[in-house]
Write a sequence for this structure.
């Protein structure tokens, strides 16, 4: 082995690698992209925890104690408002304290605190919130009370039920099938451009709309059918309507993604690389299904959250269309936006 | 005679570069127009505007009486297009390629085996196109252009890079189609091909048509007739050229035979390339 030869070859390879503008751009873009994702992700849990409570007590002593901590405390005007704040994720938990604290005479008097938690909060976190509620009430009383806490989940309890891993994985598998087919379809589009067969098509009576529709139908067949078969093979024919509607919406979204990736890619490799960039983002919401509560609310900015989360709710919690329609609407809206973008990009590239 | 193609002030620009600059020409139905010019002259851009892949930025063009900007999908039912580059579906067979394009054109009564036989691909119909040689692929491209029995054929450098046998076969197919009454718009930078096939030749240079006539008229107008003699001088032979239309031509021919040992002598006609160089000051390469 000659280091001189190896050095020359490495130099040549690096120059060759970066002489291909695409790989140079994708390397730099990937670097910037991943660094940006890293800084966008929460480093720990939220810097300041927000909790809420409702009671007629002043809670002055409790607030004096808690204000020394890194905690935001919000007083709700009613139990309904407290529940709404939990549902809208303005607070991580809401406590309903008694309106009167019993006086200590013989032993610690018994009181009940209700703790409202969001649907996807882990059991350990729920226990911690109950502990915080008890400590606050003790601080307000100035002596130890015998406190019983009642946890109540706002919405469908995603963390409370024991779901077997096999069932929990189904939405992830379905999503992965759709994503794999997305890459296949994107490559089909990129090939049409790369091999210039698109020109041969465009000089026949076929229009751009015909070609895109055909690609969309191909995408439907290659994505929807396997995803449906997987669903039926694993969970049977239950939840027929919500499953069909969700899979259709999910397939439309992934076809739109495929169109966009296909419009960016020049060949198989570049399609795979663009696809990987997009997929990393789109895959993140599946983590929330596997381990609820591990990702905070920013994950809801990713459209695929509105596919995997409703699918998980349907499969594991028997949610119906009425419980998931908002998610489907977001998914379809995102698909429409992507279709508009990719349609413009593809029309330009077809020319 | 009916006009199959009419271009008027056709213009196309890529940014600041005017690739096609207000060109006008007409092609009679049933004739072959050779569109001759060097690489980058504007041949393919004109071709793309006529087949509907680019929209003219200025001017108009009609094919079979229909406007290329507004009625291109109607036009495309009646035209066949063969590109300079190979753009076939290589993972499927030749037959499947033709079936697809026949279906796109709504043609169901064409004998695809016969068509493949005609272009010399008989017996290879079911082979994957990826296994074909360049010559075979080009033949298949021609077959694809013929799948809808077109009235106008647009051929962009159809013999470029082919071996002489394949190139000659393709020229025969083009002449056969002309006999059938098909109009052919043929872009090429091969002067011999243009000369052999074309009824009219248009010279395009830097986006402009600099000459348009029959090859014969162009040669008459611009060419110089001459004789070329091979004479023996000692141990070597040398070429001597004498122009035929000069005043001293008879004396020069007489002197040649008197003073030299003439091995061979031929009359020479100007080639289209000679004329192109004469008109534009540049070659066709």
């Amino acid at each position: 082995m000659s280091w001189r030869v190896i050095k020359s070859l490495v130099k040549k390879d690096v120059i060759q690698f970066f002489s291909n503008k695409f790989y140079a751009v994708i390397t730099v873009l990937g670097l910037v992209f991943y660094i940006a994702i890293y800084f966008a992700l929460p480093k720990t849990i939220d810097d300041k925890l927000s909790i809420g409570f409702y009671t007629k007590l002043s809670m002055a002593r409790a607030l004096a104690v808690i204000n020394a901590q890194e905690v935001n405390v919000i007083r709700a005007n009613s139990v309904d408002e407290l529940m709404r704040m939990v549902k809208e994720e303005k607070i991580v938990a809401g406590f309903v304290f008694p309106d009167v604290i019993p006086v200590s005479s013989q032993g610690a008097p018994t009181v009940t605190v209700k703790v409202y938690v969001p649907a996807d909060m882990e059991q350990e976190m729920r226990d911690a919130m109950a502990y915080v509620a008890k400590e606050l009430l003790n601080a307000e009383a100035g002596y130890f009370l015998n406190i019983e806490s009642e946890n109540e989940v706002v919405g469908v309890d995603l963390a409370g039920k024991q779901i077997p891993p096999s069932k929990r994985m189904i939405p992830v598998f379905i999503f992965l099938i759709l994503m794999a087919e997305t890459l296949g379809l994107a490559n089909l589009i990129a090939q049409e451009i790369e091999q210039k067969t698109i020109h041969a098509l465009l000089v026949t009576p076929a229009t751009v709309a015909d070609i895109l529709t055909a690609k969309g139908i191909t995408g439907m067949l290659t994505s929807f059918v396997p995803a449906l078969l997987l669903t039926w093979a694993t969970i049977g024919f239950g939840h027929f309507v919500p499953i069909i509607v969700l899979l259709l919406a999910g397939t439309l979204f992934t076809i739109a993604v495929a169109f966009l990736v296909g419009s960016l890619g020049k060949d198989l490799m570049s399609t795979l690389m663009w696809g990987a960039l997009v997929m990393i983002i789109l895959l993140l919401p599946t983590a929330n299904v596997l381990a609820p509560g591990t990702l905070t609310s920013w994950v809801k900015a990713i459209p695929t959250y509105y596919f995997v989360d409703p699918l998980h709710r349907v499969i594991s919690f028997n949610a119906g269309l009425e419980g998931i329609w908002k998610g489907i609407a977001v998914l379809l809206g995102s698909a429409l936006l992507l279709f508009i973008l990719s349609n413009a990009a593809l029309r330009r590239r077809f020319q | 005679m009916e006009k199959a193609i009419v271009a008027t002030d056709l213009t196309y620009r890529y940014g600041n570069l005017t690739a096609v600059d207000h060109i006008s020409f007409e092609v009679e139905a049933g004739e072959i127009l050779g569109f001759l010019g060097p690489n980058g002259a504007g041949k393919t851009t004109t071709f793309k505007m006529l087949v509907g892949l680019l929209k003219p930025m200025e001017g108009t063009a009609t094919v079979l009486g229909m406007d290329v900007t507004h009625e291109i999908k109607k036009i495309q039912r009646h035209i066949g297009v063969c590109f300079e580059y190979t753009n076939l579906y290589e993972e499927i067979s030749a037959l499947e390629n033709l079936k697809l394009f026949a279906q796109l054109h709504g043609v169901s009564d064409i004998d695809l085996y016969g068509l493949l036989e005609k272009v010399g691909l008989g017996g290879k119909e079911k082979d994957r196109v990826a296994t074909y040689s360049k010559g075979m692929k080009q033949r298949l491209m021609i077959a694809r252009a013929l799948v809808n029995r077109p009235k106008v054929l647009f051929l962009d450098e159809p013999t470029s890079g082919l071996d002489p046998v394949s190139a000659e076969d393709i020229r025969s197919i083009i002449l056969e189609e002309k006999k059938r009454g098909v109009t052919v718009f043929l872009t090429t930078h091969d002067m011999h091909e243009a000369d052999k096939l074309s009824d009219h030749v248009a010279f395009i240079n830097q986006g402009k048509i600099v000459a348009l006539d029959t090859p014969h008229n162009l040669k008459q107008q611009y060419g110089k007739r001459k004789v070329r003699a091979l004479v023996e001088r000692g141990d070597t032979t040398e070429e001597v050229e004498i122009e035929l239309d000069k005043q001293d031509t008879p004396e020069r021919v007489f002197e040649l035979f008197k003073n030299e040992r003439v091995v061979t002598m031929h009359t020479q006609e100007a080639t289209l390339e000679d004329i192109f160089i004469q008109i534009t000051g540049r070659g066709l390469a």
